[in-house]
Amino acid sequence: IIKRGQRKVFWQKQFLTALVFSANFILIFASWWWQKYYYIYLPFISLPLVLNCIMVFMIITYSIKNLVFKPEQIVPATPETMVLVMPCYNETFEECTRSLDSLISQVRIDQHKKAIMIICDGKVRGPGMEKTTAQYLIEDILMGHGTERRSIRAAYRAWDGQTMDIEYVKGIYKGVPFFCIIKQQNQGKRDSLIVSRSFVYNFNRRAERPKVVFAPVFFEAMANWLHNEAEFDMVDVIIGMDADTVFDRDCISHLVTESHYPNTVGVCGYVAVDFLYGNWNLWSIYQSAEYTISQALRRLHQSLVTHKVSCLPGCCQLLKVCEETCGDRVLIDLFGYHPKPLDGIIRRIRATASEDRNHVCLMLMESPRAQTRQALRARAYTDVPHGFRVFLSQRRRWTLGATSNDLMLFTKAHLWHFNWWERIVAFSNVITWLLNPFVIASLGCMIYAFIHIPWWIIVTFASIMIIPLLYYVTMIAWMPRNLLERCQFMLGLCIFTLCGPFINIGVTVYAIWNMDNFSWGKTRTVVAVTGEVEEASADE
C-alpha cells in the first residue's frame, strides 16, 4: 500500500508539473504571437491587480469609518486567564532563553493569571549546538526552577495514531508557573499544537469527564499543575509563540485588546524581521519588506473589512479557548488528520505545510460566524533565512501550504455561508500561483502592445497599476517606527518591486519540483545525538 501511495504521489506530481508548464507555455506563446488580442489575456494580469486596488480602497474607507465610529468592544469583567505556549524543536540555548524572557517581561498584563507550557518536539540538536534543545531546557534554562520531573509512558495518542512517551518538568520560572513537556519522538509542530490546545479545552470541561487523547495519569498531572499551582479554574486564551521569536514588551496586551471585538476567536500580531546579524543585510531587508507588505495589505484588509484573517502565524498568536478553535471537530478530526498511504499529494501538502494557516482555514469553514483579526501594534521579531537555499526551502512550504489551503477555501467552503470576497481572493491566488511565469511575460507583452493602442487605454491601465505601489510607499509613514526602519523599508521596497516577481518565479519552480517532499528541508536540519546528520531529503 505504501508503494502504491508513493507511485500515486509521483504521478500526480508529474501531471501537475506538466499541467503548469503546458499552460504557461501555451499562454506565453499565444500572447506574443497574437499580440493584438491582448484583451483576452488581460483578465489573468488584471484580476490580482484589481483585487489589490479594491483592498487598498476598502482599507482606507474602513480605517476612516473606525476613526469616526468606534467599533464596539466587549471587555470581560474578570481579566482573561492565559496559557503561554512555546513549541520548540532544535532551537539554541540563546533562542529559547530570549523567547521565554520576552514572555516573562510583558507589561500591562499583570492583572491576568499566566502559566507557560513548553513542548519540545523530540530530542535533537541543530548544527553547532553542544546539547539538544531538550537538554538546554531541562539542564540549563529551567534548572533550579523545577519542582518535579517525571517520565510517563504512552502519555497520549499522537496525531499519527501512535502512543507517545514523554518526560515533563514543572515549576516556577521567574515568577510564572511552567510545565515543560519533552516528547521522546519528533512528530512535528502540528502534534504539539494539538496537545496544548486539546488539553486547555478539555481542562475547561474536566467536570464533564470528556474523552481525551491523553492517558489519565498525564491529563491529571497537567490539570493538577494548572489548577493547584497556577491557580486556574479555567483557561480563557492561549498565546502562541515560537522558540526563535521575541515579543515586544506590550505585544500580548495588544493581542488581548484586539480580541475584545464581538465574535473574535483569534488574533495575530505583526511579525517583523529580527536583524540579529546586521541592519543592512540585503537578503534580510528584502524579506522584511515582503513581510510588511503582506501584513499591511491583504491581512490588514481581512482584519478590518471581512474579519477573516486566514493565517494567524503561530509565532505571534492569540486563540480563545472555545469549541470553534479547540473543539474536537476542528482540532482532532480535521486539523489532526494524519495522511493515509493512498492520500493524494494536495491532501498531504495541507497536512505537512503551513499548519497555522490550515487550522484557521478549517476553523473558518466550520464556523462561518467566527472572526479573526490582526493587531498591528502587537509586534514580534523573528529570524529569517540568511541563505538562498534555506530561503527556498522555507518558501516551498509556505507557498505550497498557502496555495493548497486557498484551493480548499475556494472549492470546499460552504457555498453561501463562507465569505465570498475571501473565496474570490483565494481563487485569484491559486490562478496567479499556477500562471506566475505567464503573468510576468504578459506584462512585457502589454508594454509592447501599448505602442499600438490609444493613449487613454495606457493611462487607464497605468493608473490602476500604480495604486498598490503608491499604497506601499505610504507604508513608509505609518508602518516603520523610526528612521532606521523607514530606511530599511524603502530599500527593501525597491528590491521587492524590481526583483520580487523573478524571486517568486524561482520559488514557484522550486516548489513544484519539490512538491512531493513533505519534510521541513534545510530549515529543520538537525544533528543527531550520535553526531550523524539527519536530513529528510538528499536534494534539500
UniProtKB/TrEMBL annotation:
It is found in: Cell membrane. The chain crosses the membrane at residues 15-34, 40-64, 424-449, 455-478, 490-513. Its EC number is 2.4.1.16. One of its GO terms (molecular function) is chitin synthase activity. Keywords: Cell membrane, Glycoprotein, Glycosyltransferase, Membrane, Transferase, Transmembrane, Transmembrane helix. GO terms for cellular component: cell periphery; cell septum; membrane. One of its GO terms (biological process) is chitin biosynthetic process. Coiled coil: none annotated. The keyword Lyase does not apply. It is a multi-pass membrane protein. InterPro entries: Chitin_synth (IPR004835), Nucleotide-diphossugar_trans (IPR029044). It comes from the Eukaryota. This is chitin synthase. It comes from Truncatella angustata.
